[in-house]
Write a structure and sequence with these properties.
membrane; 2 helices; about 120 residues; mainly alpha
Length: about 120
């Protein structure tokens, strides 16, 4: 076997330097853990508002769809209201009202026969 040419000096200065190095390593680990903890907290602080923002966006989109559906329903109701008001106006005429009642409720005069033909009901 070969004898090593490295000679290790074991004096007070070397011992102090080793202790300082160990102390610095411990401090660096603590700083690294602290920075990691701060990083994790920062990530959570950004994730929670982002989640809330996405939820708000989805709610907004749902409300917009609901608004479109309600506007369509409003237009349909406006059309129905116009039809109903025109029917009310027409029913003020006694001759039309008599025709309407005879066709809708199948009333007849004495001696008349009623034949139902789809699509011929007055509106």
């Amino acid at each position: 076997m070969k004898k090593s040419n490295i000679l290790q000096i074991n004096n007070d200065f070397i011992k102090n330097e080793l202790q300082k190095r160990k102390k610095n390593d411990v401090e660096n680990r603590q700083k690294t853990r602290f920075m990691g903890l701060i990083l994790v907290l920062a990530i959570f602080l950004f994730i929670l508002p982002t989640y809330n923002l996405v939820e708000s966006y989805n709610t907004l989109k749902d409300k917009e769809k609901q608004l479109v559906q309600l506007k369509e329903r409003q237009q349909e109701l406006i059309r129905q209201e116009k039809l109903e008001s025109s029917l009310v106006t027409k029913l003020k005429d006694e001759e039309y009202a008599a025709k309407y009642i005879r066709a809708k409720l199948q009333y007849s005069k004495d001696g008349e026969f009623i034949y139902n033909i789809p699509g011929l009901l007055p509106k």
